[in-house]
Write a structure and sequence with these properties.
With about 170 residues, the protein is an alpha/beta fold. Helix 2 runs antiparallel to helix 6. The chain is globular and about 50 Å long.
Length: about 170
């Protein structure tokens, strides 16, 4: 009898902040893989609203201790991180056709660097097609109601960053 290898996928992103669209893709990934590592990219060159630690904490507070989800941070090459974590796939969420070209180029480069890690593109639900972290941050900054676009822990942190926010 052969032992079945755990199918681990990495869902990388800045998650600045985590949205309900991200959670929708995460749920779809859990239908396919045994474990999903939600990997927060630490890129010091990119101006983020939340620190990597704040993003990790918001994500952990939003997933309710699901044992099939690991939350981590990484920097450097994604395929190297995937090798270290013994992942078989990288999850990329797709909202619209405009996402495809850059994601396709990244997937091809990742395949060239590590042919053992597959790229898996998952469409977000229709409800989240036009939701992005940058749009949510902009709406929150000007007091818009974003309460149905982000998990409650994220909404609370956005309210701390943007006191105008009243939702």
């Amino acid at each position: 009898m052969t032992e079945t290898k755990e199918r681990i996928a990495i869902y990388p992103g800045s998650f600045d902040p985590l949205t309900n669209g991200h959670l929708d893709v995460l749920k779809r990934a859990q239908d396919i893989f045994d474990r999903v590592i939600l990997a927060v990219l630490h890129n010091p060159a990119k101006k983020s609203l939340f620190s990597p630690e704040e993003r990790v904490n918001m994500i952990k507070d939003s997933i309710n201790g699901d044992p099939r989800i690991e939350v981590d941070t990484f920097d450097g090459l994604l395929v190297e991180y995937a090798r270290i974590k013994k992942a078989v796939a990288v999850i990329r969420g797709m909202r619209a056709i405009s996402d495809f070209e850059s994601e396709f180029q990244m997937a091809l480069m990742n395949r060239k660097l590590n042919k053992d890690v597959q790229s898996v593109f998952l469409m977000t639900g229709l409800r989240w097609i036009f939701t992005s972290s940058s749009i949510i941050k902009e709406a929150a900054q000007f007091g818009g109601d974003i309460s149905d676009m982000v998990p409650e822990p994220v909404k609370i942190k956005l309210m701390e960053k943007f006191p105008k926010l009243d939702c």
